[in-house]
Structures are given as structure tokens and as C-alpha cells.
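Page 47, continued from p. 46.
Same chain as before, 211 aa.
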Amino acid sequence: MVTSVANGKRMDLCHHPFKHDCYVYRDMKEIRDQKAELRAQLEAGRQQLSRADRNRFAEHICQTLWDLIQEREVKVVHSFLTMGKEVNVLPLLQRLLDVGITVVAPKTLRKRQMTHLVVHSMQDMELGVFGTYHPRESIVYQGRYDLIIVAGLAFEKAGYRLGYGGGYYDTFLADHPEAWKVGVGYPFQLLDEVPVEAHDICLDQVIIPEL
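Result:
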């Protein structure tokens, strides 16, 4: 079973306990400290998952994403490229390429910047900064996206995401209101509430497999 939490309409900022568009509800340093503590806890939890559990969860997530892509008639997908013990979406990306769906992946740059490259082959990659990798000798994509798939360390049922702290996705997600934004994670990464700052973007859907 897969739990898929969808936001048909984004939450009003004033309804979130950590976020308010009228006044500072909580001290920003306190929120950032809470984020750092949560990141450490959740990264440790991810490291403890067995390979068998990771594979089982990823298979369910990829099938749910595939069904979503068919339902929404998606033509262009932006996705992270799995690193370490993140949810393995690489088989899904290969499947998309096989049926002619455009796949775009980020190239991480320094100073919290990214560029976005068309994926032609899942095998033709090269190493980038901070241990990342990206498509080799590809063209920069500058069009619209139908679907954006993001990883994270935690997801709130309302749709907010706790990322890795680099801030790479904040501007990117905000710049693409047209795209359906989906977070994917493991069961322990779905929380009732995560610390949220003014720049954090609410996702449209979170896909989490059930235990």
C-alpha cells in the first residue's frame, strides 16, 4: 500500500503553526535549529533502513508515480537523481525515457544555484560538485514542467518538505507554479508537522509507502 497525500489547493500560510504572513510567529533561529535537529534524526533513520526495505518502498513509489504520470498525461518530468539511500527513482526515469517522455534533471552548482539538463541516457552521467552527478554533455532545458519529483528528509501531511538545508529547490519550485510538485520518501519521513520558513514551498502531493 502507498499513502498519497494530495493538496488540491495550497494551504494558507496563516494556518500553519510555524509560518505566518502577517508577523513572525516563531524566532527564525529556533526554527532553523529545529530543522537541523530533525535532519540529523531523519538521516540516521534512513541509514538504518535495510536494502530490501528500500527496494520494496521504491518499487511502490515508482509505480504510484507512473500511474500519476499516466493519469495526468505528463509530457515533461523534472526529477532528482537518486543519491545514497534516497528513494531510487532511476528505474522510473528509464521507463519514462523508453516511452518518449522528456526527463530533466538538475545540475548542482555552487552558491545554491542549479541548472537543468535534458536526460538522454541514464548511463551517460558525470560527477559534479558536492558528490552529485548529472547528464553528460546535455542541453539546458528552459521550458515548462508538468511534474516535478523531489526528495527530502521529511514531509508534512499538509505538503511541506524538509530538505537538506542547501536551499537549492526553494527558488526553483517557486518559479514553476504550473508544475504538479510531488515529494517521495519512506514511511518514517511522513510527519504531522515540520518547521517551515517563509520561503518554503508547499508541495501538491506526497507519496509515502505504508509499512
